[in-house]
Structures are given as structure tokens and as C-alpha cells.
Structures
1.
Amino acid sequence: CDYPLSNAKRLQTIYFDTEQGSLLQHGISLRLRKWPRGRNVMTFKGPGKDAFSRREIEISVGPDGLDISKFDLETQAAIRKICHDAPLVERYATDFRRKTINIQTERSLIEIALDQGSFVTNGQSHPLYEVEIELKLGDRAEAVAWAKKIALEAQIQLETISKAERCAVVAGFNLPIQSAKLEPFAPNASLDFVIARLLSECL
């Protein structure tokens, strides 16, 4: 491999929602992740402009765990409005080891994460094997091109579903259905850009 592979890091994550899955039905995940060296991070993830992007807010928290009051007031209000003040409970968990590769091109920085471990839902453990591609900086079309290349060479399925959504499906929840809103392409649009848009609306 021309790109160095990092050492493995163990990541343990708990996902929170109401008993009815209110956050899930709005495309939102709320998690508490334990990083190495005792660092805990609370993360809010919501829908972005398309299936390839997410609105993400991370807050470092102490050992006491989930505390939505540490988010900004707008995010707190959004969570409370969706949940109707119903209590947030632990719904799913993941425990995996991650190795990463950073791809630096002339235009972009792309992180490829190799995750191997398990996720737990309804008291049952299931294997987790995932390749996650994240555009850190630059051209989204390049990230899509790398995703296609990896999926083809490794013979794996290309998806935009998150770990939280995968857990929810196994737990028996239905994911919210979003209507496609596809605008006409510019005459000079690149093939990778067209594919990225189509995938983001159709996957």
C-alpha cells in the first residue's frame, strides 16, 4: 500500500434515543463515544444537504456521560422539540477497532477508516465490518471516486447508511424515507459529480 495505515484504536459508542425512536425518524443520531485515554465525546448528527453530508456537532464531556445542556441552545431546542421531553435512553451500542488511511491529493484530503468489531441491539451482538470514507477537505467527487474504487476492488456494497441507522434496522425500526429532489445538471458537469448526485438521492 502506498499510504501508511495507522495503529488500531478501540472505539466504544452508545447511541441514545426515545423508546419510540423519535430522533431516528428525523434523521438524527445522538451518541456518546469513548476514545482512548479516557476522552469522552458527545456527538449530534443531523441531515445535511444530501446523503453524503451530515450536520455534525461534537462536544467533549466528562465521565458523567450524556448531557444535552452542553450543546448550543438551538441544538438543545431541536432535540427537546422532537422528543417532546420524553427521556433519552440507551438504544444501541458499538464496540470496534479502527485503523485509518489518509489520502492526500492535489485537491483533497480523504480519510479511509477500516472498522471491525460488533454492535449490540436488543441485547444481541452482531458483527460489524465497515469501510468508512470521509472527505476532510476538498472535492467531494474525489471521495466518491475512491469509494467506487474500493467497493469495486474489495467487492463490497456501497451504502450511505450510518452505524446508528444500521443498528436501528436490526432492532426493527423503519428508516425515514426521503423524497428525491434532483435539479438539472450543468452541461459541463463531470461524470463523478453526476454519479455523486445520483447516489446521494437514490441510495
Note: The first helix runs from residue 22 to 25.
2.
Amino acid sequence: NPALSGRPGPILNMPQTTIFPKPYALLLAALLCVPAGAEEPMRPGGFKGYNLIIVSITNIGAEHMSLYGYGRKTTPNLDKWAGGALVFDDVFVPASWTLPVATTLFTGLSPNAHQIMGRNREILLSEKIKTLPELLKSAGYATGAFTGGLDYMPALGHMRGFGAAPENPPFTRFETTIPQAQAWLAKNSGGRLFLLVHGYDA
């Protein structure tokens, strides 16, 4: 297990008695956290119905983020946000680039298991593998993905389950994807939702 340390709250010990199969338990434990200062003990189903928002920035390295000690103030807004959030100091990913990592994020499987390790459209994610967006959608969540394209191409199969996923051209930036996400949120804020926002801004 990676050595995970959080600032300032505890790491969530997500029970596996949820709507998610076991491969997703660790994934969701990494994505969800207890609000800063919360002292109420975790209980089964305590986070049921929460919204899930993932923001992905390509290609940013921790070694150049002031959030992680870089000398220049390169991430001042993230630094401020992190003051009331759980920050992981040590995180391990299954590959060095976006596509296999994103597929692992959405499936809970290693690249050797999901087999999506190249932009070859002849090798698609197996229909037998359920994705996180598919599971959340079947549980009543609205699902939307607004990305910079390329490694988030829906044609590869790993984006299955996103009800809204415009095919932006490769290397689209946040100046496009954030307004898309905001428009989608305005229409879907009344219920449970899973939102992915991504941009090639680093």
C-alpha cells in the first residue's frame, strides 16, 4: 500500500457494502474525504448520494506545484483550496501517461487487466468491464465529461456511461471545458451527479 498522508482530515475508510464492486472501493476511498474538522465516525452508507467531481489537469507535475513545495507560487488557487481539503502527499499511478491511467480510474483495473495501453482504436475496452460512469448512471446519477480530447476519446470505450461527453478536439483547454461543464451543471444541479472536467493547460 502507498504511504498516504492527508492534510488536515482523516483518510476515508470506504466500506465495501455499497453499490460499487470491490475494485472501486479503493478508488472511491481516494476520491472522497471527510470535511476538514469533521469528527463524526464513518458509518456504512454515510456518503451515499454525494456528488462526485473530478478535475484532471494534463500534464502537470507535483515537482512544479507550490502546493507540494515548489519555490514559485505556481498553484496559488489550489494552495488555498487545499487548506480545507485532504491532500495526498504520496500517490502511485499504474502508468506514466493519461490514457491507461484514465482507464484505470474508470474501471479500478490495472492496465494489464483492462488492456487500454495505446491509442489503437482496434483495441477497445471490453463490454464486459463496467465503468464507474456506467455504475453511477445506473444508480441515478447524471454523468458528464468535458475534456481536452485525445486520451479521453469516447471511441476507445473507457468513457462509456457519460451521458454528456462532447468530442472536443485534441488539446482543448479549460477555457472551453469549464464553460461546457458550467452549462451542464446549470441543467443538472437538482440531482446527484458525476462530473469530469479536464484540460491541457500545463
Note: Residues 19 and 139 are 8 Å apart (CA to CA).
3.
Amino acid sequence: NASGNTPVYGIIDYTNDYNGRVYSSLYNITARNATNGNLVYGNITYNATSSQNSFNNVITMQDNSLPTACAKLNAPGTYTLQNNITNYFGTCFNITADNVTLDLNGKTVDGDDSWDDRDAGVYARGRNNVTIKNGTITDFYDGIYFSSTNNSFIQNITANSTYMNGIYFNTSSNNNLSGITANSNYNGLYLDNSSNNTYRDWE
């Protein structure tokens, strides 16, 4: 077992003795991004044995805090989109943890205009302290859909050309919205059974 800061993406854990290498048995690895402190791929359990590990077969961990595609965001932290997403079928970002910030980083998240299901650019259900900011969402059924999501923030978002709502709140309260642009939607902003939400037209 070992812990500490390891500024590499591959880890091999073994000791040398007169009979050669002895690889460590089953253990857990927890890695964090040194810049923002976010978990890198969560906790990984790996059986580092001689049959599974060698110079050419190491543990590779990806920094999920820098997404390049739609994803489930299931751990607290800040996620910064790295590129535009085009013509995506289904819900793009599903937030399943509290204390999540999704920074679209000036990028566009684009759906496929099919609306076969009630898809959303960003969906959060039963969450607390979620922030969505800095980007454009287009061509989904709903741009952003909060269900029972409270004490959260939507900032500097453009939600255009959705089938129904640019931003939709269902039983979601005590949220703050600022710098919102919503064009060519059935509803720009729709609140259903939601209270104590604050909107201002500047960020």
C-alpha cells in the first residue's frame, strides 16, 4: 500500500528480491488532478500481479474533469468542456452528484433535433449546489432540466432552438439564474411548482 502525489498517469507497484519482481496484491488507487483537486476517474481497484502488469501494461487513469463528450457527472467537482458537441442523441450531461460545476467553457452542446424522448442538454434530478455556466445549448427537447434540484446556479447560458423549454425547473427552488439568452424555444424559461428562484439579466 502506498499514498502520495504521483505526477504520472501510469503506476506499477512491485518490489525486487532474489527471485525477481513481486507485484503488490489487490489495492485501491485514488488519484486527483493536481491543478483543481478533482478526482481522476474516482477510485480504481486493480490487481497488480505479474500476469496483469509489466513495463508495457500499466494502470492508465483519465482526467474526467476535462470532458470531450457527453457524460454522467457522478462525483463532486468542476468539469470543463474541452470542445463542441454536435448532433448528440439523448441527454448529454446527466448530473448525479451534489456540488458539481459544469463549465461549458464557451462551447456549444448540440442535440439531434429528434426529440424522440424527453432529452436535455443538461439534466439534474434531486441535486443540490449545481452550477451550469458559460456556453450554448441547442436542439434538445429541453436545454437545461432541473427536477427537485435546489440551491443551484445557471450563469451565462444561451439555450436556443429547443423543442419545448430553454430552461425547465420542476419542483426546484432557491436557484439563481443570470445572463440567460433563450431564443426559438416554445418557452424560454418555464417554472413548474418551483419557488424562490432568482433571475437577473446580468451575470
Note: Residues 26 and 112 are 44 Å apart (CA to CA).
4.
Amino acid sequence: RRDRPGSLNTLSLQTILSPTMTNFASVSVSHARINGVPDLTLLTRSAIGVNYPELYPANRSAVGPAVAIAGYANYNAGDRLQHGNGNLQIRDDFTKVAGAHTWKFGALIARVRQNENTNVRDEGSVTFNTSAANSTRNVIADVLLGNFQNYTEASTRPSTEARKTILGFFVQDTFKVNRKLTIDYGVRFNYFTQWTHKTKKAA
């Protein structure tokens, strides 16, 4: 299953500065997660009778290796994704009425976080194919005899801890030319920094 808990919390303040001026400020914090939680009870090493020593101790779920058999559906431990987003946004909007014009100015700054584990096959991955050196030329016979083509196993479970900053600014005017004509125009600027990695382990 994939649980997806999340939350959004906002604190805002609207101030009337004068009969023609108002200001609106807000701070919001949001968080969302994706938790991949497959039922692996029947796939653990002890449940399927696998007892060979692993090359590395990274097997997070103590499950047997992923198996790929040429011509058949693959078998693996499924989706164990752990993903989290966290955003902080600070925003301020100012409004000024001047005659037939209603001016609006605003700015925001946001900090974006994305944390995610890489869904590597840290339990190991074995492939059976009749092109293996000791193949019987029958892939099912190779599986029964343990004649695999290759075996790989991840030594670590790297994670992504990405960070980005967003800056924004806008100016807008609502110009009431007459009772039948109103013109809205404005300009908006947004600047997005490049993603950076918190632990400096990715580029």
C-alpha cells in the first residue's frame, strides 16, 4: 500500500493601513509524504528458505533477492518508496487605490525540500538467462539448478535530499477607464534556483 499523509498550515494577517491601502501577509508550511509499505511477510529470506550470506548489510527488509527469469514475469519486493516534500512560503501583498487605478504589489519567497530514498534492490538481484556460461539452455532448469547469469547487490541505500529556493514579485493594475471598460494588466517575475543536494552527494 502507499500511505500519503500530508498537512498545510497557514498564518495570515490582513491590515487596513488607510481607506485606500491594505496589506496582506502570510506564512505557510506544508508537508506531504508517500510511504510505500508492501506486505513482505512471505518474501523474507527465512520464509523462502534463503540462507546464503549477503555481500553487504544494506537489505532493509530482510527479503530474498529480486529474480528475473527470461521469458517470465519478474519477482521482487515491490515498492518501498519513502518520499517527503516540505515547503515554507512567506508572502506579502500590498494594495493601493489611487483614483481609477487599483495597484497591487506582491512578493514571495519559498523554500522547497524533497527527500526520497532510492528504491535500489539492496536485497540483491539475480538473473536467469539461457545465455549464461553454464546454462542448460532451458531457463527453468537453470533456475532449479541455480545456474544464474548474474547477481548484483547494492552496498548502500542512498537517498536524495534536494533543496530549492523560489523568489517571486508582481505588479498589477486594475484601471477603470469608464463604467463599461476596465483594463487589467501587470507583470510577474519568478526566479527558481537550481536544485542542490543537502549532503553534497549528488550533482
Note: Helices lie at 45-48, 139-145.
